[in-house]
Amino acid sequence: MSKHCMGSEAQLKYHDILKLLKPLITAPVLPPLSFSKKAPSVRAFAAKMASSEAKARVIDSHLHVWASPQEAVEKYPYFPGQEPTLPGHLDFLLESMEEAGVDGALIVQPINHKFDHSLVTSVLKKYPTKFVGCCLANPTEDGSGVKELELLVLKDGYRAVRFNPYLWPSGQKMTSNIGKALFSKAGELGVPVGFMCTKGLNIHISEIEELCTEFPSTVVLLDHLGFCKPPTNDEENLAFSELLKLSRFPQVHVKFSALFRVSRTQFPYQDLFPLLSQVVSSFGAKRVMWGSDFPYVVPECGYKGAKEAVSLIANQVPLSSSELEWIMGRTVMQLFEGQWLP
User: Fold this and answer.
1) Pfam families, per this entry (predicted)?
2) Cβ burial, residue 19 (10 Å; 0-12/13-18/19+)
């Protein structure tokens, strides 16, 4: 074969190869994949799914648990003079929660064990994803209660603390040096302070306002609507008005709890719907949370009834389904972030 023929043959093969490659060479170049902020990432999608699951969870923001009589003898003694008259042991609580469809709870240290937190601590360790602990502030005059609080939070995992003003030394207020040290330490540790104003919010309102003003980073929980009943006179109107005015402090949250204590009627406590309506209007549903006050509620309307009453009252307000979800669990889940995972 001549050199000319060989060149033509090589040229032909070149053109054939070029023809085969042309579609690939001339194909439009696709832009690189773009992960814009608008496109949901896998993580964002998972978070959204988790959120949709979490929003329906029911979390009780206020209940108690204490030793059974046998446990009290063997391991967890009652504080002298504070022996309970109702059963409030762990198995009873778990059965009640399961029957009512309640997923988790904030356990408030009961007066029955006073400053001995060993029983509640054992429950928190046994069910770390079901319960959160609220310890009891010890306003001892030597200031050792501040260190006790720090140990309960950092060592035993408590995530809230209760101020019972009737445990302060005689003649002292919660705004005493010890009270302020405890309140300040709670803010530093990131744990909310719950106020128990059994004898009336009007007695303690100035103390709460002073503490909130001086320590705005400390989150506040007002137990049981601040013990405000549906007003029937000027004094009660004033107390409820003061409760609503506390909404000016962004750190203040309200527990719509122990309804049997604040209602003037029997289950389903329908006289409370105007109060809930005004509290939600002032604070917003994201700062309101339901609580049962187990086991005290059991002989009143039952634990399941404590949960059902809120829905019945909410229908009277009326509240949106989203607002009711916040009250029934999302508010407390937001406060104790990461505790009750889906």
Assistant:
1) Amidohydro_2 (PF04909)
2) exposed
